[in-house]
Amino acid sequence: IFRSEDPTRPVTSGCDNPNAGFDGFQDTVDVFGYNYKPHLYAKFRAANPMKSLYGSETSSCISTNGEYFFPVSNDKSQGAQNFQVSSYNLTAPPWATIPDVEFEGQDRNPSVAGEFVWTGFDYLGEPTPYGDDPTPARSSYFGIMDLCGFKKDRFYLYQARWRPDLPMAHLLPHWNWPERSGQVTPVHVYTSGDSAELFLNGRSLGLKSLKPFEYRLRWDEVRYEPGELRVVAFKAGRPWASDSLRTTGPAVGLSLSADRTIIKSGGHDLAYITVTAIDSRGERVPTADDLVRFGISGAGTIAAAANGDPTSHESFQSTQCQAFHGQCLLIVRSGGPGRGTIHVSAESGSLRGASIDLTVE
Hints:
- The chain is globular and about 65 Å long.
- It is mostly beta strands.
- The longest helix has 10 residues, at 99-108.
- It has helices at residues 2-5, 41-47, 99-108, 153-162, and strands at 12-15, 31-35, 52-59, 80-81, 84-85, 115-118, 169-172, 187-191, 195-200, 203-209, 217-219, 228-235, 238-246, 253-258, 262-263, 270-278, 291-298, 300-306, 320-322, 327-334, 340-348, 351-360.
- The chain has three domains: 2-157, TIM Barrel, CATH 3.20.20; 163-246, Immunoglobulin-like (Sandwich); 253-360, Sandwich (Immunoglobulin-like).
- Strands 15-22-21-17-19 form a five-stranded mixed sheet, with no helix packed on it.
């Protein structure tokens, strides 16, 4: 049917059935795709030396932005609690894999053309692993980014993979754990470098190097103490990138940051405003969950508000939103054909409020 309708382009298929690569079905398509089958890449290539192959749906790792559960387990069935999933990115459903496993499958079989990851963003519905339970979850946990487009830790694992020439390093988890003083709190680092040294309050916790088919650096025996966690990454023996986390104070105020401050008139253009609960040093407080109320005046309206929490049932059209791990998102729309200014404000109880002005042209 496909070729009769459009003979100009190759035909492909994403296949869940492992037999599809060997029972003749593979001969009916020009480019063959496997879903969640990195363990079959080598076998497929041996049986089909001239057939193009790619990962048509991969990984399905699950996580909640900003959530971390202990103890940390390498068992992919673990890491789910309280209708959330740990952001150590070691959890996946039975059919799926963590990103590291897919990366290894491709690196051991370089003829694989690449992958389509499930998914770029969280989405409404399909709240695996809680889909069979009475659950407050309304959205998925699969995304590299959450419902708001906030980057999960996993974003940086893929960034290190897909942009090897970009100097970057990313630390996790956050470093606000007063209840874990002296307890083992593993630290993971994603980097496009090949090694890194970890420091806690200026004290070296050791230099580690990525071995073949390793995609994250792990310090699994770190005992929590408040202060500064810092990593320095190296590439070919030279400093490459760094990242740091500090234990914050309590939230004392809000800050607003827009992805653009000028939008077009007509009632269709949008500005995305990140709302952050900050401490006295201006740093995001990753444990803050304050309720934020929004005000707007001038040439615009509130289009939506959200916080990325898969269990939140707050309306997207609400004029208030509870912070989730210290942040939430407000989307503002231009109000009509006229030009002017939009004034947006955010308030939350005793916290210092914040405001921002947008220009409508």
